């Protein structure tokens, strides 16, 4: 049975990805720093191993990674969303975002590289449409996700010699519980207008692409930045009002 490690697995895209891997016959190591939520979700699933770990902490990453000799897929999904104006983003806020969103991806991948090489495994890093197209209030978040995309390509180039593939998924607006709790109706309407498919994506739609990239069907795909966004990235030029 193949093994996937999913960080940020207690909710959202990480949990949806975990469940899809399980349906495909994999076993999953669920990693999250929210131990209560992690254990609650893991208790309802089979073939999972919950591991409490804060990926921004080098010691915790080392201890978590030491448990595994062979890993078929690593999904670097854990992230911090901290939005605010540039002038109100303190260095402490900036570093908090970078420590998880970028440093964490680097440290977890580095620590698990021998286990991934053993299986000739796959890495999928989760960035964001915010790393591809700038937006207000996302100076730290968007920059961290742009860094994840660059890191993915570095991983693909260097780790390819070990048989490891590395790709990056950039979700657009996704209908998560958190998003729906903070997005006003005006924001929802604006996203619908700006997205060619005129809707938010679902967690399962993002998970489908992640799991595909870890499959044999994607065996020659590496170093790619894939937007799963309903066409949102493609609308960078032009206004919804100008569409026919």
Task: Summarize this structure as a short list of keywords or feature phrases.
single chain, 244 residues, alpha/beta, 7-stranded parallel sheet, 15% strand, globular
What proportion of the residues form beta strands (DSSP E)? 5-15%
Radius of gyration: 18 Å
Question: N-to-C terminal Cα separation, in Å?
Answer: 51 Å
Strand order of the largest sheet: 3-2-1-4-5-6-7
Major sheet characteristics: 7 strands, parallel
Task: Report the helical percentage.
Answer: 40-55%
Count of helical regions: 8
Describe this structure as you would to a colleague.
This protein is of the alpha/beta class and 244 residues long. Helices cover 43% and strands 15% of the residues. The protein is built from 8 helices and 7 strands, in the order E-H-E-H-E-H-E-H-E-H-E-H-H-H-E. It has a 7-stranded parallel beta sheet, sandwiched between helices. Helix 3 runs parallel beside helix 4 and helix 4 runs parallel beside helix 5. The radius of gyration is 18 Å and the shape is globular. The termini are far apart. The mean pLDDT is 94.
């Amino acid at each position: 049975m193949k093994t996937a490690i999913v960080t940020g697995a207690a909710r959202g895209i990480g949990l949806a990805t975990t469940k899809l891997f399980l349906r495909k016959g994999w076993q999953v190591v669920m990693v999250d720093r929210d131990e209560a939520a992690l254990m609650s979700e893991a208790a309802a699933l089979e073939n999972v191993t919950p591991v409490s770990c804060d990926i921004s902490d080098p010691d915790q990453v080392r201890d978590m990674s030491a448990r595994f000799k062979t890993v078929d897929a690593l999904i670097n999904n854990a992230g911090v969303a901290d939005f605010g104006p540039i002038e109100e983003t303190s260095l402490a806020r900036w570093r908090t975002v970078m420590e998880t969103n970028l440093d964490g991806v680097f440290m977890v991948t580095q620590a698990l590289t021998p286990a991934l090489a053993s299986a000739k495994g796959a890495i999928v890093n989760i960035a964001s449409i915010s790393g591809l197209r700038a937006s207000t209030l996302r100076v730290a978040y968007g920059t961290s996700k742009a860094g994840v995309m660059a890191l993915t390509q570095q991983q693909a180039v260097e780790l390819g010699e070990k048989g490891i593939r590395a790709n990056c998924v950039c979700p657009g607006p996704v209908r998560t519980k958190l998003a729906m709790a903070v997005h006003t109706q005006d924001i929802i309407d604006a996203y619908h207008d700006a997205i060619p498919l005129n809707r938010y994506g679902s967690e399962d739609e993002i998970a489908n692409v992640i799991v595909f990239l870890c499959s044999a069907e994607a065996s020659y795909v590496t170093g790619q930045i894939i937007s799963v966004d309903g066409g949102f990235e493609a609308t960078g030029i032009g206004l919804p009002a100008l569409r026919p």
